[in-house]
Specification:
The chain is mainly α and 215 residues long. The protein contains ten helices and no strands. It is globular, with a radius of gyration of 18 Å. It starts with a helix and ends in a 7-residue tail after the last helix.
Length: 215
């Protein structure tokens, strides 16, 4: 798989506004923290171990570094802590808990930190393997869940939909964290540290060789 070509052509389809002081500070701080000494700030230690394996399943090492090699797991942990509001954080805690619970049941293990990538991959694949019709139903159920929370009611969400919500959000954050990493910004995307002439309607192939701009 030539991930360089995929990343060059990938726009900001995730709907996040990434050029903010908070997000920039998260990216900069993640560059300075060696992952082998990492202790999560938002997730538990076991959840952090699962997260590290999952981001590499989503973006494994190919002709470019894996997600964890560019500190994407640190980015997601810090994003959850500093950008998400309390309701979003509670939802992430609930959904990752149900995801790990499924992996533990399937593997027969007792702790999330003991789960291998081989044991996590089928759970992730199952969570994301939904039809367009079922995906729409899942998003509607998630919307109703958040509405119930906002109204002070007891929210209910099917375990399978909870795992879908976690996997879908994780995939989006992994891609965003990878795109905003220093390595990808300088070596894969179109990188211009000192902005030059502004061309509003230029052809992307002529301007950057088809690459998306590094943020």
């Amino acid at each position: 798989m030539d991930r360089r070509k995929a990343l060059r052509n990938m726009g900001l389809a995730l709907g996040y506004t990434v050029a903010t002081p908070t997000l920039i500070s998260i990216v900069q701080s993640c560059k300075q923290e060696p992952s082998f000494e990492w202790t999560p700030d938002f997730f538990s230690k076991d959840e952090g171990a699962v997260l590290t394996k999952l981001v590499d399943i989503i973006l494994p090492k190919t002709d470019t570094p894996s997600a964890s090699e560019t500190q994407v797991h640190l980015f997601i942990d810090r994003f959850a802590l500093e950008v998400m509001d309390e309701k979003q954080q509670n939802f992430v805690n609930m959904s990752i808990g149900r995801f790990i619970e499924k992996a533990l049941i399937d593997s027969g293990k007792e702790k999330g930190g003991e789960l291998s990538a081989e044991e996590l991959e089928p759970v992730l694949a199952e969570a994301l393997s939904v039809s367009k019709e079922d995906e729409a139903k899942n998003f509607e159920a998630i919307k109703q869940y958040h509405e119930a929370v906002a109204e002070g009611k007891e929210p209910l969400l099917d375990d399978g939909i909870s795992r879908f919500a976690f996997a879908n959000n994780l995939r989006g954050l992994t891609i965003m964290g990878y795109k905003t990493s220093e390595y990808v910004g300088e070596n894969v995307l179109a990188y211009l540290p000192v902005p030059g002439e502004f061309i509003a309607c230029g052809d992307l192939q002529e301007l950057t060789g088809g690459k998306a701009w590094s943020l």
